[in-house]
Prior knowledge:
Domain RNA polymerase sigma-70 region: 43-109
GO molecular function, one term: DNA binding
Strand content: under 5%
Protein name: RNA polymerase sigma factor RpoE
Helix content: 55-70%
Radius of gyration: 23 Å
CATH topology of the largest domain: Rna Polymerase Sigma Factor, Chain: A
Family: Belongs to the sigma-70 factor family. ECF subfamily.
Largest sheet: none
Order of helices and strands: HHHHHHHHH
Structural class: mainly alpha
Number of domains: 2
Organism: Sandaracinus amylolyticus
Number of strands: 0
Amino acid sequence: MERMKPSRLRAPRVVTLRTADALSDRELVQRARGGDRWAEDALVRRHFADVAATVARLLGDRLDAEDVVQDTIEATLAELPHLRDPDAVRSWMMQIAVRKVHRRFRRRTLLRALGLASGEPEGGLASLASDACSPDQRAELALLDRALAKLAAADRIAWSLRYVEDMPLEDVARSCGCSLATVKRRIARADEHVRAHVSFEPEED
């Protein structure tokens, strides 16, 4: 039997298993668009905690937050083919979440108008505070909750993203889906109201 020539020999194929941490958002998005369920799950796991925490603080109600986060995940995966910049999946996911938070605030307003809800849900920022918060700090957070509850949803969301979530103004505008000038006006209106009702003083830019 003729011996195979060395030039025809092939090196064994080496398969490298890559974890989600080794893949960028862009790579995960591309794989998810191709129907890779593992990549979809990896994207959700990567950004879930940040989005869920932000939604909980914006709404001040854990049950509402769970519903909104679930809706956000479903919308993110459904709209993934339309994402223009796969590197910006986190901010895009946050924008979807903020849009749904806004709708939840409108729903609360409608229910109150129909007499089906008495006011803001129990909880708020005070209930989400860490155990390290003092009674005075919790009382101040409760005052802040009441002040924020009287704001228009758009102003409340913008102010909270800026001063509670500590987002840069550009990210706040992106999350709210509006211009930088518009988001600055919303924050200014909300800030004037908050300062009139709470001793809390946001840091200046």
